[in-house]
Amino acid sequence: MKIEDKELQEKLHPAMVEGTHDFASVTDKISDITLKKRTPFHWFIGFGISFMVAQLLLFSVIWLLANGIGVWGNNQPVGWAFDIINFVWWIGIGHAGTLISAILLLMNQKWRTSINRFAEAMTLFAVACAAMFPLLHTGRPWLAAYWLFPYPNTMGIWPNFRSPLIWDVFAVSTYATVSLLFWYVGLIPDFATLRDRAKNKYFKFAYGILSWGWRGSARHWHRYEITYLILAGLSTPLVLSVHSIVSFDFSVSQVPGWHATIFPPYFVAGAVFAGFAMVLILCIPLRRWYGMQDFITHQHLVYMAKVMLATGLIVVYGYAMEGFFGWYSASQYEVFMVKNRIWEGPYWWSYWLLIFCNGASIQLLWFERFRNSEFWLFVISIIVSVGMWLERFVIIVTSLHRDFLPSSWAMYSPRIWDWSMFIGTIGLFFTLLYLFVRFVPIISIFEVRTLLPDAHVHGHHQDFEENVNEVEDTYDKTDPPKK
Amino acid sequence: MGSKLHGIMAEFDTATELVDAARAVRDAGYTKTDAFSPFPLHEIDEALGIKRSILPYLIFAGGVTGLCAGIGLQVFVHVIEWPIIVGGRPHFSLPAFVPPAYELTILFAAFVAVFGMLFMNGLPSPYHPVFNVPRFALATREKFFLLIEAKDEKYDYSETRKFMEGLNAQEVFDVDE
């Protein structure tokens, strides 16, 4: 079908690359950040601050290992607190990266192309931060090898595979590995570009090693594309399984407030919601600082805002269902939990803050005015990130602090070492991101090339009709392919 | 020009020119050919006569191996090596064994996908004769290249070179071994 109305056509197929670009200008513009341009002053400031904050993590970890996990505020009955809250928060943030790189690729959403690289980097760094918490909450991570992994040791001890906690080990380690592979495979052709364009011989050597001698051969591309597509196909069920399994940590137990069948889908939606908020937080300043507005266009921000709104509404539905389940269960413990969480208990404020952050604030995204404003998108994304952290706080702390036995009821409050470790991981996350921005192309160069009109081969082709329509609809109105 | 040639290479400005030239090369009967582009070109597979790779089947086999390894590991631990009842569940609790086996399926398949691709592509290969052409550095930026290797049966230096010069190329290069 051909659409004549030009305005409508632009609305249906907005160009994902703005300005006039060809293969060379795209390549230069993105690779110059790494190779040619002077490292901007704000990079040093940002990196310096992040690196200093990351030292807080180092210090907290040393303190923790020296003294044991008693330095944290965890108590009975709130045996799980900041460690698991932060773990779930970080790993959730990672999910948007995989969604963008894998699920949107399978759905042929072209707008993923310019944001997938740094969204995947965000995934990796977020998973790295997440993995610290379960490892360190064991108190003696050097012994965790036989607690967590099934290796044949002289004590004859095996992990219990019927436990969701061991599922978590498998899910998170697979997720980290596959995300790294996916990210790296995407980087190989871009490393080759950097190798061929680098003037500095050390950079040339380093990028040469990293690119594995990639030369863009048609036979290589053929297998490369197969791998890329299948990796996307593998990552899609993987990412859904990871947060489902994370939610099993809670829902397989019998604690009121955790034992609900809505948990897996509700957790996955929450993860994508939090992740897109983080992508927006990162990409709004990044595109400005590095002048990438041609590739990460206004339209990209609008799309991400819409995904955030949609997943946010699923999360709000999850909150409603949690309340409904509690009431419908007719179990006094479940009913008590709902009442206690929402208005009777001492943590009622955290629940309402959560509803404000995740439920109320995103309603602004229904309006074009807010979707079009970078300022408001940034503010809403920050609020959502806080909200998603609060969500885990509410789920974990309010469910645990009122046990089945009133005699064991207690309050929980984090101590300074809980905070310092959490803030420290934020420092680590940004330190890694700053290094990434400096040394790795932040946008997938070869994939952006495929978005340009010149990337389409004109002429005889097997899927001729389809090809013509795609070319004409999207870009090329002046030069129809010859029959 | 070196004493021994790897082949002859032509440079093109656009993807369409490359694909057209590749078709002409294939129709002329050359088989030891290759094309180089800064991004994946789907049309080139048909134009050069590249057959579909068996890689997907290997990846599938990798996934099946991962699944068997996952189930096998858990059965070994909980049924054979050290059977112990936990939480009233049977020794062979298949539903609980699903998540680790599922993750290992994906892990093994992903490993085969990535390392199988690199292995079948003959990577890493830090040296390759095509890098001897200085302008080939543009293959990762904006230009398109087509190569006929000297080991092709139909290859004859002067004839092949003449043929390639007639392909509407920007420039034709000799590629030293």
Class by alpha and beta content of chain B = alpha+beta
Kindly state the percentage of residues in helix of chain A. Answer: 55-70%
Average pLDDT of chain B works out at 87
How many E-type strands of chain B? 4
Number of contiguous helices of chain B: 5
CATH topology of the largest domain in chain A: Formate dehydrogenase/DMSO reductase fold
CATH class of the largest domain in chain A: Mainly Alpha
The spatial strand order of the largest sheet of chain B comes to 2-3-1-4
Tally of DSSP β-strands of chain A: 0
Give the N-terminus to C-terminus distance of chain B in angstroms.
10 Å
Order of helices and strands of chain B: EHEHHHEHE
Query: Main β-sheet of chain B: number of strands, strand sense, barrel status?
Result: 4 strands, antiparallel
Number of domains of chain B: 2
Characterise the protein shown here.
The complex is a heterodimer of chains A (483) and B (177). With 483 residues, chain A is an all-alpha fold. Chain A has two domains: 26-449, Formate dehydrogenase/DMSO reductase domain (Formate dehydrogenase/DMSO reductase fold), CATH 1.20.1630; 452-483, no CATH class. Chain A is built from 18 helices and no strands. Chain A has helices at residues 6-12, 23-35, 41-67, 82-106, 116-136, 144-148, 164-197, 201-210, 218-251, 263-289, 298-329, 332-344, 348-360, 368-371, 374-400, 416-439, 445-449, 464-474. In chain A, helix 4 (82-106) crosses helix 10 and helix 12 (332-344) packs across helix 13. The longest helix of chain A is centred in the middle third of the chain and has 34 residues, at 164-197. The two termini of chain A are 18 Å apart. The model of chain A is unreliable at 461-483 (pLDDT under 50). Chain B is α+β, with helices and mostly antiparallel strands and 177 residues long. Chain B has two domains: 5-53 and 128-176, no CATH class; 55-120, no CATH class. Helices cover 46% and strands 14% of the residues of chain B. Chain B has helices at 15-27, 43-48, 55-81, 94-120, 157-165, and strands spanning 5-12, 33-36, 144-149, 171-176. Chain B has a four-stranded antiparallel β-sheet, covered by helices on one side. In chain B, helix 3 (55-81) runs antiparallel to helix 4 (94-120). Chain B starts with a strand and ends with a strand. Chains A and B meet through helix 2, helix 7, helix 9 and helix 17 of A and helix 1, strand 2, helix 2, helix 3 and helix 4 of B.
